Amino acid sequence: MRRGRPLFSPTGVSLVEIMVTLVVIVVGLAALRHAFPTHLATEQQALEQVQATLLGKKQLEQLRLRGFTGLATAPLATTPEPFVDSQQQVIDGPFRWQAEVYPEAEDLLAVHVRVVWPWPAQTHVVRLATYVSRH
User: Is 47 inside any structural domain?
Assistant: First the structure.
């Protein structure tokens, strides 16, 4: 009774089998090579989006804490040069922000913060807003 073909041939592996195996491996590695840069770029873009949002929220909160009178009378600044964080550490990042205040009503101001940063194909923007009342 014969059990079928043995797993390993006593004559070895043919050149055609080696070539087919190499082609399959090369095609698989090429597909992985193209997948990783796209994933890394998407991850970097998401990270920058989060950083820009946090920067915008921080600036918006600092402006809101000035109060109604401080916002209505004081001039607003944009990104200081060099750009420093709350611990006065210089940040070399690409983010730039700008704040604007608009009167919405007699006792209400709209505060808008825009954070901009470059990306290879286009410039990205995060816009945040809040309201500050006199009371």
Answer: yes
- Contact between residue 110 and residue 102 where contact means Cβ atoms under 8 Å apart: yes
In sequence order, what are the residues at sequence separation of 6 or more whose Cβ sits closer than 8 angstroms to the Cβ of residue 53? 115, 126, 128
pLDDT of residue 6: 63
Tens digit of each residue's pLDDT (9 = 90 or more) over 12-71: 778 888 899 999 999 998 888 777 776 777 888 888 889 899 989 998 898 888 888 888
Q: How many domains are there within the chain? A: 1
9 in any annotated domain: no
Burial label for 58, CB within 10 Å (0-12, 13-18, 19+), is middle
- Is pTM beyond 0.85 here? no
Would residue 54 count as lying in a domain?
Answer: yes
Instruction: Evaluate whether residue 4 is within a structural domain.
Output: no
